Amino acid sequence: MKEFLLGKLTDQSLPHEWFTIGGTIGFILLPIAVLAILVRIKGWKWLWGEWLTSVDPKRIGIMYFIVAGFMLVRGGLDALMVWLQQALAPSTAVLGAAHGYLSADHFQQIFTAHGNIMVFFVAMGFVFGLINYIVPLQIGARDLASPFLNTLGFWLYVGGVLMVNMFFGLGGEYAATGWLAVAPLSDLQFSPGVGVDYWIWSLQISGIGTTLAGINFIMTILKMRAPGMTLWKMPLFTWGSLCSMIMVVAVFPLLTATLFLMFFDRYFGMHFFTTTLGGNAMMYTNLIWMWGHPEVYVLVLPAFGIFSEVVATYSRKAIASYGSQVIAMFGVTLFALSVWLHHFFTMGAGADVNAFFGVMTMVIAIPTSVLMFGWIATMHKGRIKFTLPMMWFLGFVGIFAIGGMSGVVLAVPPADFQLHNSLFLVAHFHSNVIGGVLFGIFAGINYWFPKFAGFRLNERIGRQAFWCWIVGFCLSFIPMYILGIMGATRRLDHYDPSTGWQPFYIMMFIGGLIIAVGVALQIVQVIASAIQKRQLVDTTGDPWDGRTLEWATASPPPSYNMAVIPNITTRDPLVEFKKNGFPKQPYEDIHMPYNTASGIYIAACAFATCFALVWHINWLAVAGLVGVVVCFIARTFNDKTEYTVTAKEIEKLEYDREEADRAKKPEPGEDMSLWEFIKIAVAWALGLIGLKRRAHGN
Amino acid sequence: MSKHRKQTSVRTIAWRIVLGLGGLTVVMVSLMRGNNIALFNSRGMIAHEQRQLMIHIVVILLVIAIPSLFLLYFTAWKYRESNVKPPRSSKAPGKHSRMLVSTIWLIPSLFALVLALIMWPAAHTLDPKHTIDPGTQPLTIQVVSMRWKWVFIYPEQHIATVNFVQIPEHTPVKFMLTADEAPMSSFWIPNLGGQLYSMTGHQNQLNLVGDMQGDYTGSSAEINGAGFADMKFTARVSPRDAFDFWVSDVKLSGNKLNEAEYQKLLKPSQNNPPTFYAAVDSDLYDKVLMKYMSSMGEDAYMTDMGNHE
């Protein structure tokens, strides 16, 4: 009976080691506490009605940022733990470990979680947040093709986030297999615990959400552009997003299928990837990389788009060789689908196959270089403002160039035999993912923040954060390249002191700490800007003298994005409007979707099913599945999904907003420095505990 | 936004970057001294050629990357706001000449072509299966990776070892790689050449040669479970006569790698010391391979089930 009710769950599954207890408190109870505080301050109704059930892509975008930001801290802590272990390992042993402070198994779980979290829940989260917020504005759409799919996709992503943290509370183990859970290591024979099951279901649930989002954005971009905006006039960020979403739809079903096969192996004892009874682990490697390689480009293409927007805006010039840029992005999309085998030249496929995939990989370098040259041509004869997004761009170029070059070296099969699975490889993809994707995200957030919040971000602290990232990056990843050349393989929890690697690992850890300071400064940057928002306020909706449509509406935009959808005649519509006047057209009735909780319910049922399958609680799995179907059907019976904002109401809303904006005169003042922020924070904290009377008496 | 503190000039920043990178280089180089820079410290022909290939590719890449990066940063600096007069006139977006477009496509394409032309033949001559010297009879060594140790079988010498392999110098060696009851592992001796996976029910062939005497560390480069970090072995390259002497020495040791001994090895264990076997069942390696191939691995399934009971 107990086994029927609880499956494999026992009281042994509850947290009983220091890291599971810490993780439970940090990553499960802390968010719950934050939610509780929000509810207490603003009320459940506000949180539920305005945010959690929202179908507004702008609100969903912000929620993506919050979850992804939280996960960045979580994944970053994992990175520091990994580096600390490697820095300590050859000389110290504490906390009962044979080397360093972690057991080999625990260490392997941490880097696996780090990889999964950073790729699926940080990079994907931020990229989807940006696409959600900006793409509809850029193409002049009021919402998405399917607002409901969008909220469902977001909540499935949250389900994945919960699942990846769930093991702290129940089970106490995550996959110890590396971020792609290579078979047969991930099969029942070698990984009998629930860790790999948590891995399967956290990827599965968020991956399905990603597929839905991909379909939704392709529909939106192809069908909902403003009149006159042909594909050839679309902004480059939208192009990057479109390419990325096409790739999502092409490869994510592959991930879903592969994960199901792995699940069948583990749950029903089938033999797709096992060592025995005809299972073929090499097939798993193929399938997972057929998805895994394009996945990286899913992340980097929107980032390329962001850089194109940033460079054009701050150079105050139209993007040069627009056509080449678009073709280059499309080229990357196509070629990215035919290079996956370079991840396992070392499996022994033979010279012809290896050479073919090596050449295909090099071909990708061509469109990437074209993008780079396009940015140079855009800056040429411009008038460049070195704002923060531009700084991130300049940082990106240097680091991405290193990552790209090391990538080409790795694409040469004979060189790859020496470099594969070494730290050189790890340094390579971190250069591309941090330098390309993450810096792109940071550039995008700094660039569009006024649009999100109605005020700019603090430049001073932002710059300090930028330099922390750059210095920290060099200090951690340059030694990593060197270690690879010295023959250090990745994922070592300890190594022989005679190798002389330890000083490099220590440098990497120090670099990691500097990056952590950078992340802390970025959090401070947002808080300091919020404190100072009267000085940093953006009343025009166009703080950077922008060129594309998202700057043509207020900051933050009303729920319907823009009252009048203009006719588009050029690639930089806003430049033309600023010259010839914004087309004043009569207001029209707008149809807007109602908020819906269906997405949450469906995702919750899906989460229950996945959780049940991790622990073999069959009744709950069936119940969850039934719940998903019932919620879907119930949703289809809901006819009241849209409401109308009449032209009159819009006129009043627009008038009120303009009045309000006019009243908000920006106060003079400089961006707060870090020191000033610390003083304010300390005073606030002292006030909170009653040590210091409110000095100003208001 | 309008009021600005005095900003650090680009020149100062550039100097700081140069100094920082310079300092980092000095620190790195001094830390590297005296250690085994495995990929540059090639001790065999294959490793040497792989190193040369890497260096050639990097040089070619730098030829395009350094000027491009310089151009980018120079353009950014030259057209900085304070250096350009406010707009002369709001020009229409300039039509970009065909020249520009074809140049930015042509240059990277040319470089990619050059790289591909270097890579294609190299991928064939340096393919792991490629026989190093058709004139010399290579020494065959059968390798079985297990959790978490390497078993080496010398079929011609009829000896076997664990976590230690000795080879005569200047003699091509053909490693036949497979695995038993272990996840994928990767057989890698960086000083002698690149790695290749060992997998159950599958045979991979890796041709290497040692040209300088010495002891080199080999390891599993691919993660394969809890004992992964300790799955190391020593590869000793010695003169021919020293190798022959070592073989006869091992033959005197009296240990025998028979079925019973093999089953003991199969049990997962970590940090195994080098072990030597004076004799080995001649069909052991084939049995390991066939265990997974006969009726698609039913035998392996049976032993696996047996182990779990």
**Strands ordered across the widest β-sheet of chain A:** 1-2
Per CATH, the superfamily of chain A is: Cytochrome c oxidase-like, subunit I domain
Number of domains of chain B: 2
- What CATH architecture label of the largest domain in chain B applies? Sandwich
Name of the level-1 CATH class of chain A:
Mainly Alpha
- The total count of strands of chain A amounts to 2
Low-confidence stretches of chain A: none
Largest interface: A-B, 110 and 106 residues
Could you give a short account of the major beta sheet of chain B? 6 strands, mixed
Distance between the termini of chain B: 73 Å
- Helix/strand-derived category of chain A reads mainly alpha
**Assembly form of the protein:** heterodimer
Tell me the count of domains of chain A.
Answer: 1
Helix content of chain A: 55-70%
Question: How would you sum up this structure, described in words?
Answer:
The complex is a heterodimer of chains A (698) and B (309). Chain A is mainly alpha-helical and 698 residues long. Chain A has one domain (53-596, 637-688): Cytochrome c oxidase-like, subunit I domain (Cytochrome C Oxidase, Chain A). Chain A has helices at residues 2-6, 18-42, 44-52, 57-88, 104-138, 147-169, 195-223, 236-268, 281-315, 322-336, 351-379, 388-410, 413-419, 423-453, 459-485, 502-531, 533-536, 573-580, 598-614, 618-636, 647-663, 674-688; strands spanning 590-593, 642-645. The longest helix of chain A is centred in the first third of the chain and has 35 residues, at 104-138. Chain B starts with 9 loop residues before the first helix and ends with a helix. Chain B is α+β, with helices and mostly antiparallel strands and 309 residues long. Chain B has a six-stranded mixed beta sheet. A five-stranded mixed beta sheet of chain B has the order 4-10-9-6-7. The chains are: A mainly alpha (698), B alpha+beta (309). The interface between A and B is large, with 110 and 106 residues.
